[in-house]
Amino acid sequence: MLGADGHSSLAVSRMRERSAQLFQKACKVIPGGVTANIKYFPPHPIVMKRGSGSRLFDVDGNAYIDYALCYGALMLGHGHPRVLAAVEQHIAAAGTFVFGAPCELETAMAEKLIAHYAGIERVRFTNSGMEATQFAIRLAMAHTGRRKLAKFEGHYHGGYDQVLFSVHPERERGGERRRPHAVAASKGIPDYVQRETLALPFNDLEATARLLQENANDVAAVILEPVEGGFIPAEPAFLRGLRTVTEQLGIVLIFDEVKTGFRVALGGAQQVYGVTPDLTALGKVLGGGFPIGAVGGKRELMAQCDPREGQDILTAGREDGVQLGVRDGSASDVLFHSGTYNGHPLILAAGLATIDLLEQPGQLEQLFAHTNQLRKGLEDVYARRDIPMQTCGMGSIFNIVLTERPVANCRDMWHADTALRRAIDEELLNVGVYCKPLNRYSLSLAHSSADIQYTVDAHERAIDRVLLRGRSSK
Fold it and tell me: Which end of the chain is more exposed for a tag (fewer CB within 10 A), N or C?
């Protein structure tokens, strides 16, 4: 049986005693005990030991059905044999882990992405989705010669200065719904970055178009998640209208498909909506569980980083009075992009094995059917207990939102009962269902119908325990 039935806080504490000990040990050498803030949740995160298929196993021996899946990256589940075989075979054939030079797999993966994504004609690889969005913004600014970035409230594109605004803005600081403020989401962000950031209201075309027109001479790019946070889909008319407005104003449109790439369709959200961006950022699923990112886009945009037309700023020295590596102009005339591990062959081997399986007939259809089965089962459970709830999402990702009100953007989430949701999520951890509290659910090919039924039943038990505690405390 998965998990444990601990009712008391003491039982729960004993259930994850080793996790608590390791967390305290980590806190002595790692700030907050975690290497990324997103990995923390109170009273302490669960320390995992191994994974297999749809399951995770923690250091205390507890088993969980995993719906975090490394925040959506593991679309085939944990330790899929095809991915393991691809990595092992590459190491055996190559005799090394990385070349630090071009390899055939870079071209093979680029060809795959060009075949599946309407907005991709050329590709460059990075080491994460965050790096991909950062590079896409640089391409857009180089192309337009403008310096302001427009982003939407509620959208997360990575942890760097340019985009770390209005991810979850507070009510008192967010400004008007149709004219939001760019609210810094971290300390340490310079004021000048905030002045060059324009916040936009998601799924409000009229207000977005007006703000873009007012700033048309300054805005280089609009970046957005076509599905906000991975679970609030753009309205089709909104996305089509945004494409039209950006084209009219000469603004580069960037789709951040790090979450939605392959998860809502092989060709991402742009395939679902039939809207083609100028640049696309990918990550997560693309690496099959390994760190990777990619930027793809129109030929003329991507050509800006072509070294045949530019320079190598890392080549030191001068010959005949000319800086080595620079041709036909100064370093500032061309766009620099590099990274020691860009196009890492082991990661590309894992990613290609992942995509090859997803391309097989029926695989995505079955995954989406399982996702819808889980969503329907959960909605029925909450409805039977008269708890306002809806599942929001697309493809193989969704979230549980405890409100009856329509959810079109992050401000609508202010009306959700997050306290109840958190309490249920915490109880789910005690009965063997793993997802960081308040996070979205991601499914994989490894999740079975039995997993889904167990999860529905687990929600039923978790809700009943939380409601019982609430009645007992009155």
Answer: C
- CA distances, 394 to each of 115, 369, 371, 416 (Å): 22, 11, 9, 19
- Token code pair at residue 57: 């196993």
Q: What's the distance, CA 50 to chain centroid?
A: 23
Identify residue 17 by its one-letter amino acid code: E
Q: At a CB cut-off of 8 Å and minimum separation 6, what does 403 contact? A: 388, 389, 390, 412, 415, 416, 417
**Which pLDDT score is estimated for 155?**
97
Instruction: Give the residues across from 338 on adjacent strands.
Output: none
**Which of the residues 284, 382, 412, 454 is marked catalytic?**
284
pLDDT at 7: 52
Which residue in 64, 117, 156, 434 is the catalytic one?
156
- Between the two ends of the chain, the Cα-to-Cα distance in Å is 33
Q: Which pLDDT belongs to residue 301?
A: 97
Which 8-state DSSP code applies to residue 234?
Answer: P
**Phi and psi, residue 252, nearest 5°:** -75, 130
Residues in the chain where the model's pLDDT stays below 70: 1-11, 310-312, 314-333, 471-474
What's the pLDDT at 331?
Answer: 58
Spell out the long-range contacts of 265-270 with Cβ–Cβ below 8 A and sequence spacing 24 or more: 265/364, 265/395, 266/116, 266/355, 266/358, 266/359, 266/364, 267/116, 267/117, 267/118, 268/116, 268/117, 268/226, 269/226, 269/227, 269/234, 269/394, 270/117, 270/118, 270/119, 270/226
Closest to 282 measured CA to CA, from 436, 66, 75, 97: 75
Active-site annotation holds for 156? yes
Query: In angstroms, rounded to a whole number, what is the distance separating the alpha carbons of residues 151 and 445?
Result: 33
Judge contact between 347 and 340, C-beta under 8 A.
no
Nearest Cα to Cα of residue 126 among 353, 344, 346: 344
As to burial, measured by CB atoms within 10 angstroms (0-12 exposed, 13-18 middle, 19+ buried), residue 79 is: middle
Q: Which of 66, 256, 412, 451 is catalytic?
A: 256
Residue 230 is given by DSSP the state: T
Measured on CA atoms in the order 136, 140, 145, 148, is the torsion positive or negative? negative
* pTM confidence score: 0.93
In residues, how long is the chain? 474
Determine contact, residues 33/24, Cβ cutoff 8 Å: yes
Q: Is 5 a catalytic residue?
A: no
Query: What whole-number distance in Å separates Cα of residue 309 and Cα of residue 307?
Result: 5
Instruction: Report which DSSP code applies to 372.
Output: H
Question: Is-contact 233 394, C-beta < 8 A?
Answer: yes
Consecutive H or E run containing 380? helix 363-384
Q: What is the pLDDT of residue 170?
A: 85
pLDDT of residue 3: 44
Q: What count of other Cβ atoms lies within 10 Å of the Cβ of residue 135?
A: 23
Which parts of 145-218 are beta strand (E)? 148-152, 175-176, 179-180, 197-200
Under a CB-based contact definition with an 8 Å cutoff, are residues 137 and 147 in contact?
no
